[in-house]
Amino acid sequence: MSVIVEQLTKRFTTGGTPAVSDVSFHAPSAAITTLLGPSGAGKSTLLRLIAGLELPDSGSVRIEGVDCTHLPVQKRGIGVVFQSYALFKHMTVRQNIAFGLETRKQPRGEIEARVDEMLKLVQLEELGKRYPGQLSGGQRQRVAFARALAIRPKLLLLDEPFGALDSRVRIELREWLQSLHEQTGVTTLLVTHDQEEALEISQHVVVLSDGRVAQAGPPEEIYDRPATPFVASFVGGTSVLHGSVRSGRAEVGTLVVAAPQSAREGEAVQAFVRPHDIKIAKPAHGSNELTTGRVERLKSVGGYVKVLLKLPSGETVTVEVPRAEFDDLGVVEGDHVHADVRMAKVFLGDFAI
Ligand code: ADP
Ligand code: MG
């Protein structure tokens, strides 16, 4: 329990909606915790409150058991990396990494040794004499990590650190960050709007929506047991379908799925269906049996094919079919197909997410 945030609230305008509203969570020691949520959810504000770059209206922040709520940034023992590189352009890579150590007035020899160690850690030994302008985006971000880690922080705060990079570099750095974390073991808080990044990198996920915690837990739990309709729709590329309870089951258009036990006959439901939890099949040739829907669009993405299925109700469902399986299916746009839902998360009621 290395970072403990309790009932943190921050408003930017008096009487306005808080950017961060009564937020409490624990970020376990030596783990990567992600703060996951859509744009405007309050992730950056929360991180800035923990860093001491903003002051809360109420609530507290404890780092390693020390109440830091009113401590200045420099006294919190944190390293920060933002989306924009924020390196000093007129300083070399070495000078950038040394910066925090110099402001702490460490002996020259120790600073040089630490900079060498950091360059090695981020695999940029050869580039110490370059200026930020002579580096790629990915390399600059690695320098930013080296600079943040040089001061031996108790806590590393990362605000969408790979957000400005192209997708190939982003995925490379995602793996790099995991191995960096294995080597340093520094407690890390990572802000991201990318649910795949959150589920892949972290041991603990805090999902934020409108300045509040929607759910917190290990990634598997967030994915498999979303606590609210918001989490169910935000995590997992989910389709949302409307329907009602008939004979103890949830009927959503032409699909039928299990309903919660407390469901009453006729009650409105919303089913959240993941793209890989639906199986489609072609009806037997020449048969006129009832099908689930019509294939509106096919799109091939990497190892699988995305099928956009339109139900008679007008609602659409996205289905992902592994490529080999898709080739066997022989489905083309315009075909009418059967669809079977392997698993869906059903919430009672008719509400907006
Ligand atoms: P996220 O990082 O999740 O996209 P932010 O924390 O940046 O969200 O913003 C949350 C809310 O707070 C937004 O509505 C945003 O407009 C508002 N906000 C953030 N910073 C400021 C600020 N300095 N002044 C006024 N409003 C702000
Ligand atoms: Mg942000």
The sequence of SSEs as H and E is EEEHEEEHHHEHEHEEHHEEEEEEEEHEE
Distinct small molecules: adenosine-5'-diphosphate, magnesium ion
Rg, Cα atoms, Å: 25 Å
| Fraction of residues in helix | 25-40%
Give the end-to-end Cα distance, rounded to a whole number of Å: 32 Å
- Spans of at least 5 consecutive residues whose pLDDT stays below 50 are none
Instruction: Using the alpha-carbon principal axes, give the shape.
Output: globular
- H/I helix tally: 9
Write down the domain tally: 2
Q: For the record, what is the CATH homologous superfamily label of the largest domain?
A: P-loop containing nucleotide triphosphate hydrolases
- Please list the strands of the largest sheet in the order they lie side by side: 6-7-8-3-9-10
Supply the CATH class of the largest domain: Alpha Beta
Which class best fits the helix and strand makeup? Answer: alpha+beta
Task: Return the average pLDDT rounded to an integer.
Answer: 92
Give me the CATH architecture of the largest domain, please. Answer: 3-Layer(aba) Sandwich
Organism: Archangium gephyra
Pfam families: ABC_tran, CysA_C_terminal
Protein name: Sulfate and thiosulfate import ATP-binding protein CysA
GO molecular function, one term: ATP hydrolysis activity
